[in-house]
Amino acid sequence: MESKNAIVVGIDFGTTYSGVAWALRDGEDVEVISTWPAAGSRTTPKAPSTILYDKNVIHWGYQTGDMAGTIQGVKLLLDDSHKPKYQPAAEARDFIRERETTPVRVASDYLCKLVAHAKDTLDRRFGSAVQFMGLEYVLTVPAVWSDMAKSASIVAAEEAGIPARHLTLVSEPEAAALHCLQSIQPNTIEKGDVVVVCDAGGGTVDLISYSVKSTNPLRLEEETEGTGVVCGSASLDERFKKHLKKRFGRKFEKIPRQSKQMAMKYWMETIKPNFTGQDGYPWCEKGKLEGDYFIPVPGTSDRWARDLDNGFLSISADTVKKIFDPVVQQVEGLVDHQMGGLSSRGKPLPKALLLVGGFGPSEYLFQRLKRRWSAVVQGAVQYGLCGNRVEKRIARKNYGISIHRPLDNQSPRKHDTDIYWCELQEMWKMRNCMEWYIHKPPNKFNTGKEVFKSCDMSADLRSIPVDLFEKRTNSKGKEYYVVKYEIHMTPKSASILFELVRDGKTYGAAYARY
What we know:
The protein is an alpha+beta fold. The protein has three domains: 7-162, Nucleotidyltransferase, domain 5 (2-Layer Sandwich); 172-385, ATPase, nucleotide binding domain (Nucleotidyltransferase, domain 5, 2-Layer Sandwich); 455-514, no CATH class. 28% of the residues lie in helices and 27% in strands. The chain has helices at residues 87-98, 103-126, 147-159, 172-183, 233-248, 257-274, 317-344, 363-384; strands spanning 7-12, 17-24, 31-32, 47-48, 50-54, 57-60, 71-72, 135-141, 167-171, 194-200, 205-215, 218-222, 227-229, 292-296, 308-309, 312-316, 352-356, 399-406, 419-422, 427-438, 456-458, 470-473, 479-482, 486-491, 496-502, 505-509, 511-513. Strands 1, 2, 3, 4, 8 and 9 form a six-stranded mixed beta sheet that branches. Strands 10, 11, 12, 13 and 17 form a five-stranded mixed beta sheet that branches. Strands 6-5-7 form a three-stranded antiparallel beta sheet. α5 crosses α6 and α5 (233-248) runs antiparallel to α7 (317-344). The protein is globular and about 70 Å long. InterPro entries: ATPase_NBD (IPR043129), Hsp_70_fam (IPR013126).
């Protein structure tokens, strides 16, 4: 019999990162664990899915740091039906064989540490009362995993101290759908709607489509078979590493290990999440990207590789795009497959595509899927659209807004005074970068005297819910908040409307001061 005071603990055991959240069974608020051993003052919802055996001591998560012998990607080894293409997972398999152990045993050791940390967190919250509260565990697994892989996950959890009778498995995209459909605002999902969930994680990308049977309480029904491929964020890391090997050739083995790690860290933390591709470079000519990234590779000689200068390797945005494209194209193929499955079943076009997971925050992946998704949905909308009697309006001027961009996304600049150091985000930025909304025919404009400031816009951010502000802390311990929003510009018959928009919801007008 389930205890009313039971605590439900959700565990997301990922290929590259893992997380834990919990909630009281009779409560509504879900709390995510954001402090981890050896993480210092940083707060983050995930810890690295890494483990290191040091004699009789087991280090895990942030404790492993950059130490040699660290095992990564063991999750992928739980499914024998998929040969790991992720290099760290392949290396982990060889290491496990040498130790004469099994992937299940290693996964169990990691889960044991993860669960122990979760229990410590609950002990600090509830004190001795936690001993009288039942713990129910929910472990997420990829939608495309075989029954054998799911069984291996259960065994690993049991060996980590989780009783099988208190353990439930849930597919990762289903867990994502349940969370997103109950938390997105404004929530326009209604009974009968179809949604596609794209869980783009570090190792795998899983997609599945659901129809909404009821909204209160939320009930879903699968409409297509889940599909997935090992083409997650970690695949990009592998492609980047191969690019480095190609650039350095035989000299690659001479690069100090810490220098390689520094280069990979810059790729994973700066380039990979922020790269937007052509969609993010409105000043670029069609089919061409501009701007270079400079990757730190200390301890190297300028003669070791082309475009290597004083320990910084230059890599063009076009090259970054080539690293991304094969992986992103696989994700697009999965989306197309889901669309085809829905169409063959005579189902309506999906109302939403929910992009979640560790690969989900990639701006480039988001823009590519947004463009592909928009083409499908807009095609259906345009077919029956007849409400707007004015079919076309001609712009009298070019309209845009001046924004600040990270210096990595280099735009043509005339004055170095446009470059400044952002103390809070700890990065170089550039001011006076234009984001053009409307182009006057024939879609050409000057950058000289004909371009002038028309007005200053201001918006009241107090209308945005506080929980949408993301709290961050820089390396100096300074805290600041980040809130994502868009400025929507709508040409009217005799005016232009500017609105502050977040997740499709308008939070008031953006007022112009001329």
